[in-house]
């Protein structure tokens, strides 16, 4: 028996073509911007605005030398540690607060007092308590990144349909099982949104603390090169921070797509 071939749906690959078009236009814009900066900085001739080609050479040299690579590793570990701590604590506390009105009423004023405190203002206290080092950097990043995770988890739990919870309880699920099997999956989109926001905040805080405390990392690398008036190397460090932020955002987005495949049209992985 011969089966007739199924015709492809018109426009089925249109989203893919649109994405490729956007990527090509973005790449073309970046190339044009780099060329414009190369010409503009050459005409300007300022030692404080080196051309992109000199920055690229400095970047390769510092990475090959190992100094920038070592600093980058320190920064990545600090961001990962702070974000991991903030995610674990934020999700757990957010789940508890979202599922208990009484607990939220008790802790609300403490949370509202702590949340507006700028994380950078707590760095001197953290240094007194923990000393200068990666522990202080991770603690500051975790504190700053905690709030978007906590509140996105809280509101994600509060938005869960009570009918779903009641239905789960009719099947004999305990409170902990309802949280794990029903509430957590339904709140996951909000939780991942909070983690995405927190990842950018963690990077900003890590770089800021490294700049302030000279405790290592890319922030200290940038500060050292600035004080030594090694301008291309300084800009190379700034470029590394930008690329790192972009890669972190891509990683979190990939995690969202992986975990929330059921929440997209078509449910494709």
Automatic annotation (TrEMBL):
Q: Which GO terms describe its biological process?
A: transmembrane transport
Give the membrane topology, semicolon-separated if more than one: Multi-pass membrane protein
What keywords is this UniProt entry annotated with?
Answer: Cell membrane, Membrane, Transmembrane, Transmembrane helix, Transport
Residue spans making up a coiled coil are none
Q: Which CDD domains match?
A: TM_PBP2
| Occurrences of domain ABC transmembrane type-1 (ranges) | 72-256
TM spans (from-to): 27-49, 69-97, 109-132, 138-157, 178-195, 201-222, 234-255
Would the keyword Transport turn up in this protein's UniProt record? yes
Places the protein is found? Cell membrane
Taken from the UniProt entry, a GO cellular component term is: plasma membrane
Similarity annotation: Belongs to the binding-protein-dependent transport system permease family.
Protein's name in the database: ABC transporter permease
| Species, as recorded | Pseudonocardia broussonetiae
């Amino acid at each position: 028996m011969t089966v007739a071939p199924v015709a492809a749906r018109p426009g089925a690959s249109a989203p893919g073509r649109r994405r490729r078009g956007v990527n090509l236009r973005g790449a073309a814009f970046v190339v044009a911007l780099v060329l414009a900066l190369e010409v503009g900085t050459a005409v300007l001739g300022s030692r404080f605005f080196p051309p992109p080609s000199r920055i690229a050479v400095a970047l390769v040299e510092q990475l090959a030398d190992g100094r920038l690579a070592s600093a980058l590793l320190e920064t990545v570990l600090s961001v990962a540690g702070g974000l991991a701590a903030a995610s674990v604590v934020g999700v757990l506390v957010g789940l508890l607060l979202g599922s208990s009105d009484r607990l939220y009423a008790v802790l609300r004023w403490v949370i509202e007092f702590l949340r507006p405190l700028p994380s950078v203002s707590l760095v001197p206290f953290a240094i007194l308590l923990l000393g200068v080092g990666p522990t202080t950097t991770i603690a500051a990043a975790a504190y700053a990144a905690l709030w978007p995770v906590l509140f996105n988890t809280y509101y994600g739990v509060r938005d869960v349909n009570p009918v779903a919870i009641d239905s789960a309880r009719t099947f004999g699920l305990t409170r902990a099982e309802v949280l794990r099997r029903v509430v957590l999956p339904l709140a996951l989109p909000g939780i991942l949104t909070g983690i995405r926001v927190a990842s950018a905040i963690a990077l900003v805080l890590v770089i800021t603390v490294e700049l302030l405390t000279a405790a290592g990392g890319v922030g200290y690398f940038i500060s050292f090169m600035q004080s030594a008036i090694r301008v291309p190397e300084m800009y190379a460090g700034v470029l590394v921070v930008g690329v790192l932020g972009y890669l972190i955002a891509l990683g979190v987005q990939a995690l969202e797509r992986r975990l929330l495949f059921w929440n997209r049209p078509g449910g494709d992985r």
